[in-house]
Design goal:
By secondary structure, this protein is an alpha/beta fold. The protein has nine helices and seven strands. The chain has one domain: NAD(P)-binding Rossmann-like Domain (Rossmann fold). 48% of the residues lie in helices and 15% in strands.
């Protein structure tokens, strides 16, 4: 029997890359998956892949910068499949630009914070009423960029560290309800990673040299299964950061 049979999962930013891999892994384990993304054609394509393999999926347009749209996604989830058991806050709603810290602007920091920490908060708050009486799994997205303080990414890295702080607060406050809240910091092949490689090939090669396993992860094979584990076997883990980056950042 599939480990997530009868469960309902919501994945934001599910139209490509890491979000797509996570959604497909959850569906393969039997979960009904709601795929949310700004480009509905992309999430619809992934939903069609899942349904073609016998799974249940619903594609929805959503800009995670907007609380009302996140609320609508959760309401649609409940109407179609029932209350969510798993929430994966994968989408970063904006603020991923690079540049020196000395030249960083208010707008860059606010965009990164709004698209990262606030959008994550929106999803968590929308799901809480449905998980409070039955438990649940929340997985948020951090980044080794924030953990390590990679030069040139201050707004993005700062926002991702805010996500980690938010996760720890939620783990302590919501543990009484049987809700686990954890962060994963993935390094994986995705569209954004490919764009960075194309634009900054030398820096890309430098990053790869920092990874003890010598490669980027695969969304379906390396990242998605970890989310499945958090929703099944790792039910006693909460408030933790899982560095799924091939060993680039080893927490002390």
């Amino acid at each position: 029997m599939a480990r997530l049979s009868g469960k309902v999962a919501v994945v934001t930013g599910a139209g490509q890359g890491i979000g797509r891999g996570i959604a497909r892994c959850l569906a393969a384990e039997g979960a009904a998956v709601v795929l949310a993304g700004r480009t509905v054609a992309k999430v619809a394509e992934v939903a069609a892949e899942i349904e073609a393999k016998g799974g249940s999926a619903l594609a929805l347009a959503c800009d995670v910068n907007l609380r009302a749209q996140v609320d609508d996604v959760i309401a649609a989830t409940v109407a179609r499949f029932g209350p969510p058991d798993v929430l994966v806050n994968n989408a970063q709603g904006g603020g991923q630009g690079t540049g020196s810290l000395a030249a960083a602007t208010d707008e860059q920091f606010l965009a990164a914070f709004r698209g990262g920490a606030l959008s994550t908060l929106y999803g968590m708050q929308a799901c809480l009423p449905h998980m409070r009486d039955r438990g649940g799994t929340i997985v948020n997205m951090g980044s080794s960029t924030g953990v390590l303080g990679d030069p040139g990414f201050a707004p993005y890295g700062t926002a991702k560290e805010a996500v980690r702080a938010l996760t720890k607060h939620a783990a302590r406050e919501w543990g009484r309800y049987g809700i686990t809240v954890n962060v994963i910091c993935p390094a994986a092949r995705s569209e954004s990673a490919k764009a960075f490689e194309d634009k900054h090939p030398e820096r890309w090669r430098a990053v790869l040299r920092e990874i003890p396993l010598g490669r980027m992860g695969e969304p379906d094979d390396d990242i998605g299964p970890s989310v499945v584990a958090l929703a099944t076997d790792l039910h006693y883990l909460t408030g933790a950061t899982l560095m799924l980056d091939g060993g680039r950042c080893i927490l002390r």
